[in-house]
Each structure stands twice: as C-alpha cells, then as structure tokens.
Amino acid sequence: QVQLVESGGGLVQPGGSSRLSCAASGLIFSIYTMGWYRQAPGKQRELVAAITSLGSTNYADSVKGRFTISRDNAKNTVYLQMNSLKPEDTAVYYCNAQLGKIHYWGQGTQVTVSS
User: Fold this and answer.
1) Which of 69, 29, 30 is nearest to 48 (CA)?
2) CA 84: distance to chain centroid?
3) pLDDT per residue as tens digits for the range 42-61
4) Which of 9, 15, 39, 43 is the most buried (most CB within 10 A)?
C-alpha cells in the first residue's frame, strides 16, 4: 500500500521560508517522478515543482527562483524548500508520485503566508 505523508508548512510570515517534506512508502521511490502541487481556495490544483528519477526539475513560473525541489532516494523523501514566501503562496500543498499514468497523492499540508 502506497503512502505519501507530508510534513512541514503551517503559518509563515511574508518573506519567510519553510520546508515541506514528503515521506513515501510502499513503492520503488527512486523510479517515480515526484512532485508538489498546491490548491488554493476556489482554484484548481496546480503543479508547483517536479523532479524526475534522474533529478531533472521543473517549476511553475510563479515559484521559479524562490522554491527548490529535491529528493533523497535513500530516505524515500522529497522536499520543497520555499523561500521569499508571498501571501499568494497560501494553499494546501500535496505531494505526488507519478509513473506513467499512475499517480499517488498525499493528504496535503496547509501553508499559510500571512502577517
């Protein structure tokens, strides 16, 4: 049974930083593309960042230069380092594991950027 468990997030001040973690189990982590998505109230879920099994990354234009995705295959964990956070980054952040048409999702973690 595949499980993706996110941690991190919470309330952060504008301009601050936070790191999300996603621990995966029940799958061969190293072969999956791992991603972070987010969904703000009233908006569709959107891709924030992804990292392939080979370590290639891509980012949404809105987070380029501020967010960094990384993975540790030895720990079956993917991270999202978020810097220079803005109020518009407020959303529920979801971890995703993708292999072809297979997608697994975490339960989500709230990130709120507010003073």
Assistant:
1) 69
2) 16
3) 999 999 999 999 999 999 99
4) 9
